[in-house]
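Feature request, filed as a ticket because there's no other form

It would be nice if the structure record came with a short human-readable summary line next to the tokens. Right now we just get the raw output. Example of a typical job, pasted below so the devs can see what we mean:
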Amino acid sequence: MTVQLSEIDRKILTVVQTDATLPLDEIARRVGSSKTPVWNRLKKLRDAGVIRETVAVLDAERLGLEACFFVLIKTAEHDAGWLARFLNAVRNRPEVMEAHRLAGDIDYILKVRVPNAKAYDDFYRALISEVSIYNVTSTLSMEEIKNTTALPIPVA
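Raw output as currently delivered:
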């Protein structure tokens, strides 16, 4: 369900996507409003689920997670039991940063962060021990060109 956003909502979302730790006074100043309306709008946006969570974005490389693999998965099985096992395996692996079900020739794509190729191999072996996969293609990202959590805020 799409939420209707006012111009001030869009401004607030743009600011907090950049830095959610800003004091309310500063957010209000940047969006050209006062604290109380901004606080009320932030509460409304949280209650509506537009703002899902407030988190710290960590630097993977500084934490030793220098390898980013994109894992393309094809499966020959599409029954509920396989899907439940696959979803459980993916959701319980902390290395999996993102998982998407795709239209087209590939069924799923995973974004996996690990320290190195050996750690990826360990991840891969653990995954295939939990769920049967028809074909897996793994691609190592050589350079991260863009990585953002900021969404493009739609204009009314």
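Something like this underneath would help us a lot:
The CA atoms of residues 20 and 54 lie 7 Å apart.
The mean pLDDT is 96.
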